[in-house]
Design a protein that fits this description.
115 residues, alpha+beta, 68% helix, elongated
């Protein structure tokens, strides 16, 4: 399970990535993230993020009828959201690369200290 504090920094970008795949709704976003190994992310976490992304102009929403119950709010990326997603991946790759380099260097020093 990924600690909540680590998720906070990347959850917006990951939600944009899910929405970027296809139009979808809040519960499905949480389920898709769970399926990718993010653990159970409460809808109470997802919906405020969706509202913030929508207010920020990164996503837009439309309501659609659902055979399974009440209407659902489906989200899709805006042009600004697509650009934000590209920037997120670039920043994430840079962070991941830096952390991996640090980890490799730390592991090498740990090996040297034990010998």
């Amino acid at each position: 399970m990924i600690p909540t504090q680590m998720l906070k920094g990347v959850l917006d970008g990951c939600i944009l990535a899910v929405i970027g795949r296809r139009e979808t709704y809040g519960y499905e976003i949480a389920e898709m993230l769970r399926g990718y190994g993010f653990g159970r992310i409460a809808e109470g976490t997802v919906y405020p993020l969706l509202l913030r992304l929508e207010r920020g102009g990164l996503i837009e929403a439309t309501y659609r009828d659902s055979a399974a119950g009440p209407r659902r709010k489906y989200y899709r990326l805006t042009a600004q959201g697509q650009e934000a997603l590209r920037a997120f991946w670039a920043h994430y790759r840079a962070l991941s690369s830096a952390a991996e380099a640090l980890w490799q260097d730390t592991e090498g020093k740990s090996d040297e200290q034990t010998h």
